[in-house]
Amino acid sequence: MPRYFTVEEATSLLPRLTEILLDMPARKRDLDRLRQQLAEAAAQAAGNGHLLERDLAEKRTAVEQATSILNDLARQITDLGCELKGIDEGLIDFGGLREGREVCLCWRPGGERTAFWHDLETGFAGRQPL
User: 5, 51, 112, 115: which could form a disulfide with 94 (CB 3.0–4.6 Å)?
Assistant: First the structure.
């Protein structure tokens, strides 16, 4: 982890993280839908022998743009010094120190504050209340 947060510092970022995380699942669903459309168009073009290059190019561009948007949202989280553990779950880890050792302070949307921690090796399943 590049930075150590106090519980207060981590909690102060929650409003911004909430904004980002609320947007990410819809963006991911859009990207998944666009990827599916691209795969179907590519299969159709290959299957009937017609190369629908313009349609495929438009779908590729849409996938690239959607990927870029999602990557930008993830980068915003990283730029705050946090680690995104899952888009669908919205799990966020903050580097922290507890009793002199490196740990992760963890949070997910819906929590009003950073209230849990876990060892680096145990992950979310090993979380414990602060």
Answer: 5
What does R_g of the chain's alpha carbons equal in angstroms? 19
Of 28, 15, 31, the C-alpha closest to 80 is 15
For the chain, list residues with pLDDT below 50.
1
Buried b (16+ CB within 10 A) or exposed e, 84-104: beebeebbbbbbbeeeeeebb
* 44-75 pLDDT, tens digit each: 776 665 557 778 889 999 999 999 999 999 99
How far apart CA 84 and CA 108 sit, in angstroms, is 10
Cα–Cα distances (Å) from 84 to 4, 49, 54, 104, in that order, read 15, 43, 36, 12
Mark 3-19 as b/e (b = at least 16 C-beta within 10 Å): eebeeeebbebbeebbe
- Residue ranges of the domains in the chain? 7-129
Cβ neighbours, 10 Å, residue 42: 16
Cα–Cα nearest to 103, from 115, 91, 120, 116: 120
